[in-house]
Specification:
The protein is an alpha/beta fold. Helix content is 43%, strand content 11%. It is globular. It is an enzyme of class 4 (lyase).
Length: 336
């Protein structure tokens, strides 16, 4: 039996990691022996995450550098019922130039040298975002498979994925069927995820576990492992629409599963917390988690993304304070 939370923080071992250029996860056949023994000690998880803000102090210039790095890992997101093409175009403009040039200059960075990791939209706006980001190198991520509930028929889920890839999405954020997790039907979850992976073709796939809906940390550990076995390139906490979205407890369990999968297969899987990561202080805790649990490579956008919108405004406020000594009003830093 593997007690996920009690694993020590140790250097990664096992098979040598793959390079970023090889980052597509081919998956492995479903082996329930990897899943059945997974257990999570809630108390141990809580003790571990309580130290994240106290074990490591990131201040002044170092904090500014960490926050600039965080911007490059943001999937700048708009997933609202009142989204319009104009809003998406404004979001893409912000993704290209997320920080004012005067602040970058004061921080010793060339103008335009920082951009976000991706822009995340509904399928309807994939073409709009692709056009607005042309030449920037910023990928478009599309939420798919009946986001956020994931309850449309399976063939329609596959068609939605294929349509977004056709329109130019380089990344697809899919939602799993929560029922498969809640009933312990791991074969059904594996088969579904395997189909999604095939439908994505060249696009990278992020598996949204909707952790606020599947409830227990043991369920989260098992669903993480099954999705990676079925070919997920990233595992993602939440849709942002659940009652509880990304938390450090859930994230610790998921990154420990990424570490376990790496040791078994040599494949480096990415992690994306989404929903509720809205302040510079909170994103630093997630960065520390990634650095301590998985290593420096997981601070790069190839392996770490944050699904957020308002987070960028708070980071920009903190960087302005670092440069000028003054806090500006939140409304002076609109995202879109």
């Amino acid at each position: 039996m593997l007690d996920v939370a009690s694993q020590p923080v140790i250097p990664l071992r096992g098979k040598p990691p793959s390079t970023h250029a090889e980052q597509r996860n081919p998956g492995v056949p479903l082996d329930l022996s990897w899943v059945d023994g997974l257990r999570v000690n809630q108390s141990a998880v809580s003790r571990r995450v309580s130290t994240l803000g106290t074990r490591r102090s990131v201040k002044k210039d170092a904090q500014a550098a960490w926050l600039l790095k965080a911007i490059t890992c943001i999937d700048l997101t708009t997933l609202n019922g009142d989204d319009t093409a104009a809003r998406v175009e404004r979001l893409c403009a912000k993704a290209r130039r997320p920080i004012r040039d005067d602040l970058l200059d004061a921080l010793g960075m060339p103008p335009g040298s920082i951009k976000t990791g991706a822009v995340c939209v509904y399928h309807r706006f994939v073409g709009t975002a692709v056009a607005a980001l042309a030449g920037s190198g910023i990928p478009v991520a599309a939420v798919s498979t009946g986001f956020p509930a994931g309850l449309i028929p399976h063939p329609l889920k596959l068609k939605e994925i294929e349509a977004s890839v056709t329109d130019g999405a380089a990344e697809i954020d899919i939602v799993v069927t929560r029922e498969h997790v809640l009933t312990g039907n791991w074969q059904a979850l594996y088969d579904e995820m395997h189909d999604f992976r095939a439908a994505c073709g060249p696009a990278h796939i992020k598996a949204i576990l909707a952790t606020g809906d599947i409830r227990t940390l043991s369920n989260i550990a098992k669903a993480s492992m099954v999705c990676m076995m079925a070919g997920a390139d990233f595992i993602k906490t939440s849709t942002g629409k659940e009652g509880v979205n990304a938390t450090l407890d859930v994230s610790l369990v998921m990154v420990r599963m990424i570490r376990e999968y790496l040791e078994r297969t040599g494949m480096m899987i990415g992690f994306k917390p989404a929903g509720g990561v809205s302040t510079a202080k909170s994103v630093l805790e997630y960065q520390i988690l990634m650095k301590e649990e998985l290593g420096r490579e997981w601070l790069e956008p190839e392996l770490f993304r944050i699904g957020a919108s308002s987070l960028l405004a708070d980071i920009e406020r903190q960087l302005e304070h670092h440069v000028t000594g003054r806090y500006s009003a939140f409304h002076r830093h609109p995202v879109a």
